[in-house]
Specification:
The protein has 478 residues and is an alpha/beta fold. It has 19 helices and 20 strands. β6, α5 and β7 form a beta-alpha-beta unit. The structure holds alpha-D-glucopyranose. The site of alpha-D-glucopyranose has 14 residues, from α1.
Amino acid sequence: MKKILFIGAEAMPFAATGGLGDVMGSLPAAISAADGDVDVRVVLPLYGAVSEKWRSQMTFLGHFDVMLAWRRQYCGIYSLVKDNVTYYFLDNEFYFKRDTLYGCFDDGERFAFFCKAAIEMIGFVGYYPDVLHAHDWQAALSLIYLDTKYRHISGYENIKTVFTIHNIEYQGKYDLGILREVFDLSDWDTHIVEYDGCINLMKGAIVCANKVSTVSPRYAEEIKSAEYAHGLEKVLEENSCKLCGILNGIDYNFYDPETNGGIAKNFSATSIYDKYENKIALQREVGLPENKNIPIISVISRLASHKGLDLITEMVYNLMYERDAQLVILGKGEAVYESFFTDLERAFPEKVKALMTYDRDLANRIYAATDIFLMPSKSEPCGLSQMIASRYGAIPVTRETGGLYDSIKSYYEADGQIHGNGFTFFDYSSAVLRRRTDDAIDLWYDEGKRMALIGKIMTTDFSWKASAIRYIEMYSSL
Ligand code: GLC
């Protein structure tokens, strides 16, 4: 039996804020389903946000103390099994019983504790993995501690390591002055984590890991260049023999228009017209005119500029003025965008709904109702929304970058056949986004073509199946 231990800061359905949580919550089960000979386990912080529903299913395995520089901190271990995957939760209320998962002044210390405790836990529970698979900067120190402090201990010598970059923008950068006091590293370890005069935890993990992966093949190429690497291009170039890209999948059980109990009417690729019941239901819910014969364009996104929102804001006023379409925006983030969309709704009360919040169930209802889904990201490691939208029969309009490039190909017709599964563009320009959005609207108004394309989009495989096998191959190669 091959033993894999995932370590990361969040996982659905226990506690999650974004795409990392989706992946940590669905990839382990997909790996275990793809190969019965792989035992995948996951270690997470026990955040205050983890609900009683899950807590009541946990077993307390014991506790130990974790030394972090001069600190001695309690760590309790709880576990539960879900979909054949064992989840371990590390309990320390001082660090994790807070209102948010991240964004605290002491995140560096919190995740240093988490990483050290996770490595200690391996010995405590006696689950020595063949591969320790760490995700994003919050888990980076686990690989660094393993190499600098634990390799001499029996059971830890031969653990292989993988580090997955979900978004290179967030690297875990700190002042070198806290190397010893907070991160419990010595001057001898400086060369591992130092980069550009700071501590850079992601860089340290890239250097220590046997393999570095990222969440799409295209992004794996992009992050070797300065345009995408947020300063880490040199490190990735030097470590490029370790680097590979594996496209994410989505949880096909959770994102399923045929069984989702939270939408007005279930539908599938063979009953696309039922989708329009969901459109009427959404129009009623948000207060837009109820009309099946007008396309709903939607944006479901964190309102951050790298999501390409500047392109949308530049072109959307004219778009709404000129075209028969409705627009629904769901998300929160930078104040400029929130106020822009709120103003847009005021300018077009019959056409635009700006929902400046995040709500997963509402997101599902919007996906089910959407005809055209905009995602013009400046950079996108993988992106999951374009896949979810596709599964719900929305036509994606995406920029050709990262995982968007790998998952959505442009529509064209040849030999009486339709090719592609969306409308894409490369130039980061609002005029081009506008043109492709118009193309999508034009196609939508041609019912025959619309139905053929939606059928194709809904049956494109975005499940974890193929990618889970690629992960297993990667583990075997170690
Ligand atoms: C990050 C990336 C996103 C990716 C997700 C899961 O949130 O920004 O593109 O899909 O991680 O890997």
